[in-house]
Design brief:
The protein contains twelve helices and ten strands. The protein is α/β, with parallel strands linked by helices. The chain has one domain: Rossmann fold (3-Layer(aba) Sandwich), CATH 3.40.50. Helix 10 links the parallel strand 9 and strand 10. The N terminus is likely disordered.
C-alpha cells in the first residue's frame, strides 16, 4: 500500500507540474511578444512605448533581443540608452523586460537580450553559463544598441539584475562605453557556485570541482551533457523549500512568471569557469558612477554589500535599500519596482547628460 501511495503521489506531482507548465506556456502565448510581466506591451501603438524584437550576431551566435523605444520615438532625435542584463535562469520576457519597458516609459531606448546559449538565443550546448560569455553578452548589447537609430552612444548606461548584476559589474570594469552602472539584487554567481549560498558549501568545493571536471571530460569524449540546477519543480517541492530566495524563485520562474524558455539548468562543466570567477575581482577598475540596489529583506543583500564596499574607485557611488523587499519581490512587486525605476531614472538622468 505504501508503494502504491508513493506512486500515486509521484503521479499527482507530475500531473500538477505538467498543468503548471501548460498554463505558463499559455500565458506566454497570449502575449504576442511572449512577455509574462504585469503591464507588458500587447501591441505597438503610435505615441506609446513600442517593442521591437531583433536578432544580431555575437561571436557567430544568434542573439535574440527586444528593443524598447520611448513614446513618440523619433529616430532623427538622440536618446540616452540602457542595456539590461537578465538574472540567472531568467530571460528577456521576464523582469529584464519589465525594467526595460519601464525605463523606456521614462524616455530611454533600452535593450534586453537573452544570453548566448540561453532563452531564444543560439549556442550549443544549451544552458551553458560561463562568466566570460555572460559578460560578452552585455558588451554585445552595447554594440548593437549603440548603432540603433536615435541612440546617443555617448549616453549609454547599464542595468544588471541578479546574476546579470554581477556580470554588469564585470563588464563595466573594462567597457568604458558604459557611462553609468546600476545593479538590482546583485548575485555574485562565482562566489555562490564556489562557496554555496551564504557560504554553505565551503567544505565541498574540491569535490564539486572534480564533478565539473568529469562532466567536461564526458563532453569532450562526445558523451552526454551533464546539467546542474533544476529543470522543473512540483508544488510539494516548493513547499519543502525554506523561505527565501530559492522558494520565491521557484514560484516566480515556474508559476507566476513562468516562460517556456526560462530554466534554472546550467551545464555542470560551466562550474569550471564559475567557481574560479568572482564579480568583485578587479572591481576597483570601475570608475563610472555606480548605483547598487537591494531589498532590505533580501537574503542576497550580503553580496551587494560586499561588492559595494570593494568598488573603491566608483564615482559618486550609492547604495539604495528598498525597504521591505526580498530579492525576488524586486523583480515584480509594483511598489518595489516603482521605487527602483524612480531611483534608476534619477541616476541615469544625472549621469547620462
Amino acid at each position: 500500500m505504501k508503494k502504491l501511495a508513493s506512486i500515486i503521489t509521484i503521479a499527482a506531482s507530475i500531473a500538477a507540474t505538467e498543468v503548471a507548465d501548460a498554463q505558463s506556456a499559455q500565458r506566454a502565448a497570449q502575449n504576442p511578444f511572449s512577455l509574462v510581466y504585469e503591464g507588458a506591451i500587447i501591441k505597438n501603438e503610435k505615441g506609446k512605448v513600442n517593442i521591437h524584437p531583433v536578432t544580431y550576431k555575437l561571436n557567430g551566435i544568434d542573439i535574440a533581443a527586444n528593443v524598447y523605444t520611448p513614446a513618440n520615438y523619433d529616430p532623427a532625435k538622440k536618446y540616452p540608452a540602457v542595456v539590461v542584463a537578465h538574472p540567472n535562469g531568467g530571460i528577456k520576457e521576464q523582469t529584464a523586460g519589465l525594467y526595460a519597458q519601464r525605463l523606456a516609459e521614462d524616455g530611454y531606448i533600452t535593450i534586453a537580450a537573452d544570453a548566448a546559449y540561453q532563452g531564444a538565443s543560439g549556442g550549443e550546448p544549451r544552458h551553458t553559463d560561463k562568466p566570460a560569455s555572460r559578460t560578452e553578452d552585455i558588451r554585445g548589447m552595447a554594440d548593437f544598441i549603440s548603432q540603433y537609430a536615435g541612440v546617443d552612444k555617448n549616453r549609454l548606461g547599464a542595468l544588471g539584475i541578479c546574476g546579470g548584476g554581477g556580470y554588469t559589474l564585470k563588464a563595466a570594469q573594462s567597457d568604458k562605453r558604459l557611462k553609468a552602472v546600476a545593479t538590482l539584487s546583485m548575485f555574485n554567481s562565482g562566489e555562490v557556485r564556489r562557496n554555496g549560498f551564504q557560504n554553505s558549501q565551503l567544505n565541498t568545493i574540491e569535490e564539486r570541482l572534480k564533478q565539473a571536471s568529469a562532466a567536461r571530460a564526458q563532453e569532450a569524449a562526445g558523451g552526454k551533457i551533464m546539467y546542474s540546477g533544476v529543470a522543473s519543480v512540483t508544488d510539494e517541492e516548493i513547499e519543502k523549500t525554506p523561505a527565501g530566495l530559492y522558494r520565491e524563485g521557484f514560484v516566480y520562474y515556474y508559476r507566476t512568471h513562468a516562460h517556456p524558455n526560462s530554466t534554472f539548468l546550467y551545464t555542470t562543466s560551466s562550474l569550471l569557469d564559475l567557481m574560479t570567477w568572482d564579480a568583485t575581482d578587479g572591481i576597483d577598475l570601475i570608475d563610472q558612477p555606480l548605483l547598487m540596489m537591494a531589498g532590505s529583506k533580501a537574503d542576497t543583500k550580503y553580496m551587494t554589500d560586499e561588492a559595494f564596499s570593494k568598488a573603491t574607485n566608483a564615482k559618486d557611488k550609492e547604495l539604495f535599500i528598498i525597504d521591505g523587499a526580498t530579492h525576488i519581490e524586486t523583480y515584480w512587486k509594483p511598489e518595489y519596482v516603482s521605487q527602483a525605476v524612480n531611483k534608476l531614472d534619477g541616476f541615469f538622468k544625472q549621469n547620462l547628460k
